[in-house]
């Protein structure tokens, strides 16, 4: 259960990082 929470948190961090990188490249 704790591991699943960590995986979801990591996925959210990856999505957020990709969103930031996408915005940087779009500027």
Describe the structure.
The protein has 27 residues and is mainly α. It is 93% helix and 0% strand. The chain has one helix at residues 2-26.
Residue share in helices? over 70%
Task: Please give the largest β-sheet.
Answer: none
Helical/strand content category: mainly alpha
- Number of helical segments with 4 or more residues: 1
Kindly state the mean pLDDT as a whole number?
Answer: 88
Distance separating the two termini: 40 Å
Order of helices and strands: H
Low-confidence stretches: none
Organism: Staphylococcus aureus
Protein name: PTS glucose transporter subunit IIABC
Keywords: Sugar transport, Transport
Salient structural properties:
1 helix, 27 residues, mainly alpha, rod-shaped
List the helices and strands and how they pair.
Elements: H1 2-26
Protein name: PTS glucose transporter subunit IIABC
Keywords: Sugar transport, Transport
Write a brief caption for the model.
It comes from Staphylococcus aureus. Keywords: Sugar transport, Transport. By secondary structure, the chain is mainly α.
């Amino acid at each position: 259960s704790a591991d699943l929470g960590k995986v979801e948190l990591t996925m959210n961090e990856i999505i957020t990082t990709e969103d930031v990188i996408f915005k940087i490249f779009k500027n």
